[in-house]
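> tool_call: predict_assembly(chains=two)
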Amino acid sequence: MPRRRDPDYVVDPDRGSGSVGAKLADIVSPESAQSRGEARAGLRDLDSMTEAMPGLTRQQRDRERISPRATTAELGHPRMQRSLPTADQERVPFSSRQKKARSKTRIGVQGQLPAAQYQAQRALMTNPRRWHELNDALSENTGDVQALSDAQQQVVRRVDRSIQAYERSNDRGHVIYANVAMPYQINHSNLAAFVEHNFHAGDQISFDRYTAGTHQLHETTRYAAGDTAGRVAVFEIATRRGVYLGHSDSQDNTAHLLPRGMEFEVVGSHEATWRSPDGSTGTRVVIQLRDITPEPADQGKDHP
Amino acid sequence: MSETQDAQGREVFTVHPEILAGGAAYRPVKREPAPQHPQQSDRGDRAAEQRPPAS
């Protein structure tokens, strides 16, 4: 549930509707935030019941679930987890080795995807209008895929399966950077204070939408170049989920798509320094998040 | 392995930059509280119907 620091409003970092793809935080009433939180809890309950229901195959359970199941492979090595950097740690470009390894996995997995899943993923990630419409529909319905139109449900299910296909082949952790625009009252003079006031360590937040980001703070900053007001902060997210949609080291492109229906705990916020491959540096206000998405599938492990 | 095509000859596409963006093109945020949709109460009812009775 969006966290509540003020009796009169709640900042929901995933609720705003914008014409671009970044997350757009919005101010909602405490009653609305509570209602949406209860709706999400109800949906999680339904997924738990689906997982506990005897006699269903894994495929049938996945089809009935409202939130996509995490399918991440075992970590290849504990060091491959990737933890959140400390506040004084400079955010540096991804190594060539990291880009090559993830790109190789991406291309290998993509080569095995059915045409329908490939087309759904490609259309979502290359068409801002489609991205906007589908994510707005998910947000309007608090992540309940079964409340979407049949056509939208079909696209969401296919995108979910394409993400899960990558997760099954990925033995690495991720730290993902995603832009988040704060409400219009916020600008460069009060962004850091607003973030500090509204995102405290231990707060829990929910993303009903898909989340697009990159593995590099300087790269995510480049995509936010149009933020002349200075109201765009960055989520720095530690997770094992999602699909790498960047390229190898021939391009400075490390895009990553996170699944819908994720929940996070705020670790903290601070101003972080980034360095780009050409040596230039800058700072961004980052909000560090840890993935705490519950997994009802754990309750269904006895059922094949 | 090709960096531009997968094994089926399909493009290794690039995510549209607007989807990763932030800033200038924002529409004003909606100021009213989120509307209460009929589906929300339906979902609550569905959860309540399927939830096992408390012992």
